[in-house]
Amino acid sequence: MTAVATIIQSLKGSYGFDRAQIRTDLESLEHWGKDWTKHFAPAPSAIVFPKTTEQVQALVLLANEHHIVLTPSGGRTGLSAGAVAANGEIVVSMDKMNQIGTFYPADRLVEIEAGVVTEQLQQFAESHDLYYPVDFASAGSSQMGGNIGTNAGGIKVIRYGMTRQWIMGLTVVTGKGDILHLNRGMVKNATGYDLRHLFIGSEGTLGLVTHAQIKLERPPQDLTVMVLGMDNFSDVMNILSAFQAKIDLTAFEFFDSVAIDKLMAHGQVQEPFESRTKFYTLLEFEAPYEPIMDKAMAIFEDCMEQGWVVDGVMSQSIAQAQELWKLREYISETISVFTPYKNDVSVLITHVPAFINDIDHIVSSNYPDFEVCWFGHIGDGNLHLNILKPEAMSKDDFFAACQVVNQYVFETVQKYGGSVSAEHGVGMTKKPYLHYSRSETEIEYLKEIKKVFDPNNIMNRGKIFDM
Question: Which CATH class is domain 223-332?
């Protein structure tokens, strides 16, 4: 009997797993063995669906005993192959650990299981007149365990921060099989190392998150959206500075004329205004009082007088705000037909203009036939570089050429002291480039930390770095 078969037999016989909690059919292996990346073929040996922390612990202990690697799986919406099982691993899916638990109104705190979907948490918060602000396009399918594992960001980071800011406590099963209850939801806890923050962003390489205590916020009031067009990129940054100096923005998004061209050709959204410009920003802010709206209009008029803004539009209703948001939210779906090669990078906001100029020069001088689509959360320095495949070029040739571009792109990221992965994690796709953002000494420290929590290297082996 193989090691995997022995583990499955033990799970069924001694640990209460029923038939629905273990799958080995080819369709299931294909479905749960991959995420949104297309770079690696899934090849897991089994899919396991634990229902409790104790069942997770039993699986981890058996995996250590039989030297079988475990790959955690949430909503599988990742873009770095962090949830891909390509080498016979057992996939640990949190689909059946999807319950929202105790709510603490005085603390604005809720306990959840790792398989809770982001949108499910957002709806729970809304039902209690509260708000969970970490938001992104995959909110309807991404799971909180995966969000925690990658420290997910999204469209509201400029105001509310990353996932890390909202995790008040974690229950985890380490790679050794120990159950740890980290911080237990407290705001003030000065009792040494906060191990909770090691697990946030660790991509399942230290252990498995099973439960979390999530902080909630008051909901924003009377959100208003502006879309502005400009012809010089430097003016994007001028506008950001002008608004941030006087208004607390909840979002500041950026996209270029290539994105608008593709959106309009796709026909799902309307032109924001008659003029076509080279660059666009979408900014959002709370306007519950008339003076805030007056201040926003005054800033907009000043930007027009300065010559920074060519044209603009402001929402007059919730429905109009939602329509304007589609200009940003539909970009990824629209350009997907062009087989984009994606890079998710970040630099200090101060460096963004020079960084984009350098990257545009690299791509245009080395690959004049490649079309580049820029968009991203520019208010927090996060940019999405999308190189679009020429129609006449094969996919293999295109990806090979993009691998060469990668070196130049990440050398530029390193030049500005930035990150090769702003919000999508490292996984396998960014692993070869980690050294552009982390020093060799720092990477050695990361490896030593992993050895403490996962001495047998069974947790998501091959992700972030190789041991």
Answer: alpha beta
